[in-house]
Amino acid sequence: MSLNRCIYLLSRSHMRRRACVVTSSHTAAVANNYTGHMCAPKGPLRTCPSSSDSASRPPDTSLFVPLAVKSEVAKDGAVGEELTQPLDKSELLKVLNRFYKRKEMQILASEQGLDARLFHQAFISFRKYILEINTLNADLHIILSDICCGAGHIDDIFPYFMRHAKQIFPMLDCMDDLRKISDLRVPANWYPEARAIQRRVIFHAGPTNSGKTYHAIQRYLEAKSAIYCGPLKLLAHEIFEKSNTASVPCDLVTGEERTFVDLDGRQSSHVACTIEMCSVTTPYEVAVIDEIQMIKDPSRGWAWTRALLGLCAEEIHVCGEAAAINFITELMLTTGEEVEVRNYTRLTPFSISDRAVENLDNLKPGDCIVCFSKNDIYSVSRQVESRGLECAVIYGSLPPGTKLAQAKKFNDPDDPCKILVATDAIGMGLNLSIRRIIFNSLVKPSVNEKGEKEVATITTSQALQIAGRAGRFSSVFKEGEVTTMHHEDLPVLKEILNRPVDPVEMAGLHPTAEQVEMFAYHLPQATLSNLIDIFVSLSQVDGLYFVCNVEDFKFLADMIQHIPLNLRSRYVFCTAPINRKQPFVCISFLKFARQFSRDEPLTFNWVCRHVNWPLVPPKNIKDLVHLEAVHDVLDLYLWLSYRFMDMFPDANLVREIQQELDIIIQAGVRNITRLIRAAEAQVPEAVGPGLTSPSLRRARGSKAHPGTSPNMRPLGSSLGSRLVQEGLLTQELLQQLQKEWTKEQKQPTGVAKVSAGMATKNKKKKK
């Protein structure tokens, strides 16, 4: 009885399908029936089809990764085969290929979200499924059997094909929901607390050294409660100290540090923080947002957008370039808030020299040579010290304490160090007494909105930010000067500085953890990196905004994809601010995530074993770079400790060894520069623990700086220098030079070591 009933039901279904007359309207009927099937509700956030504007931009289907479909045994067994006959695989292949070639099917599929790429991928998977499965479901088996026998229409395959396509591309069934989740057109509405109050926005506009931030901070100090949001830890720390010195209790909040002035840990009414750490739910009387032009930054612009739209303060004081005035005014119109503009002029003048420096012999006290790569920093500082001049060195990857120590050394009128060699890291956060800025180059590597590396001439904004460090109001030099190292760069610099600053035109946005979680609900099998890609592809922004590049986020997501973590924890790990160019930092990040996934706390002892603490002073530049990486790893631990306190429990102990490491790095930077001077002067004496000039020479070789050593002249000193400066010295050539050099210097190296050892013994005897 049950078998007859089954046959009866199948027959009725079968007859209904066969009743469709093969006409030009058959394909349209299939489309209409299938479209109705797609509208069935499934889970939360199911909505009606979105408006035409939300579907105007097709998604980037190259980001859709097909899922594997398991060949499960049919629930109704071999009923289809019993009712019809076994399917001939070769005949079945012909039928499927005919289906694939039908333009009507391709058009119908495109209406359901399958473009040519997805249609092809779905068909390959569907064909493989049909040909490899042992037993098909009865209804599909009957349809295919009828078509093979000439009793059915090939278009009848389409609903089963689409059902399979949605199994391998689940995003097709929820595209409207995904578009709504990734709709970023009205970010002002993300902050209801800020929209509930009428804020007063004051724009302090002016160049560097114009007093714009000073006036905003004065209002900050007068307020009953206030928050300062800056781009750097150094700037936040400066306001923290300035506020507490002025007897205005102020806390410090950065990604890696929380300092509360109240001994009981109660929050102060004032807080100085890095901009990513600002609270958009705490009410304040005054908020200060520094360097507002960075709202257009391809990587970090979202943080300024969030602060500007979301801070709950009666007064919002923004400080930055005048080039951002029009944009900020327009942006505030979307929140119904007016902008009051206060313009400032530079307090001390600076001029562009008519002559390039051309030769390092022409350096004067108070000069700062600006380079745009660490290798150039090493090369220039070596050449400066070979002339008997002592120089300070500042670049981005140095710890904040080391930067401050080098700045203090350069600023000290009693210190013999009168020359500074630095990257554009001096553009913000450091008070320096510079008389003349010298651009060693005008070309800087950068990352564009797509996350792609580029090498381009510096912008007017960048040039002014750096040049403005000369002759600051608080320094001993009341007038500043700017020039270039090379004669051919000087007219280019003049042209750059005389151009108007490019206006700010867009603000950055970034997907939030909540948005990513909603995406993951609909696409539970997708990787986090793939979720972000699809989000960015589907995201809709109006003309005022852009989506910040997410390459660093995706890099970290891919690195830990194999580690079992819940989505929220995975997202937090991937927002960690690490330098992915440092292999040791990346390895540490991976180990942190793996240990975290095992639910094993990362203790102080575990961290010490990992970084091989205690560490010794660097013997060469390679050692110094490693110490900088270790400092970054400890920063990473501290950053994670404020997000996962139970799993990273020893933040205070880690901070203590980080401070010790900072001192080691400071000493290392001083010793490296002394070694460079000693090597150039051919003095084989030890200038640091375990550090001799031959060991420096070997370090130099490893860093592509052997060109100017007197001992390298038989190998071609001028050629080596030119290759280093032009970046044409290959690793193979470097290794060859190193081997030959080591062989020639083998005996002097031994003598130097013995001399250093004897000198140490003599010192001990005298003591």
TrEMBL record:
**What InterPro entries does the database record attribute to this sequence?**
DEXQc_SUV3, Helicase_C-like, P-loop_NTPase, RNA-DNA_Helicase, SUV3_C, Suv3_C_1, Suv3_DEXQc, Suv3_N
Reactions this protein catalyses: ATP + H2O = ADP + phosphate + H(+)
**Annotated stretches, region: Disordered:** 687-717, 741-767
State the name under which the record lists this protein.
ATP-dependent RNA helicase SUPV3L1, mitochondrial
User: What are its cofactors?
Assistant: Mn(2+); Mg(2+)
Where is it located?
A: Mitochondrion matrix, Mitochondrion nucleoid
User: Please, one GO biological process term?
Assistant: mitochondrial RNA 3'-end processing
Quote the PANTHER family the UniProt record gives.
ATP-DEPENDENT RNA AND DNA HELICASE, ATP-DEPENDENT RNA HELICASE SUPV3L1, MITOCHONDRIAL-RELATED
The family line of this record is: Belongs to the helicase family.
Entry's Pfam families? DEXQc_Suv3 (PF22527), Helicase_C (PF00271), SUV3_C (PF12513), Suv3_C_1 (PF18147), Suv3_N (PF18114)
Organism listed in the record: Electrophorus voltai
For this protein, what is the EC number?
3.6.4.13
Query: Per its UniProt entry, which superkingdom is the organism in?
Result: Eukaryota
State a GO cellular component annotated for this protein: mitochondrial nucleoid
MF (Gene Ontology):
ATP binding; hydrolase activity; RNA helicase activity
Ordered alphabetically, the record's keywords are: ATP-binding, Helicase, Hydrolase, Mitochondrion, Mitochondrion nucleoid, Nucleotide-binding, Transit peptide
- Annotated Helicase C-terminal domain residues: 355-512
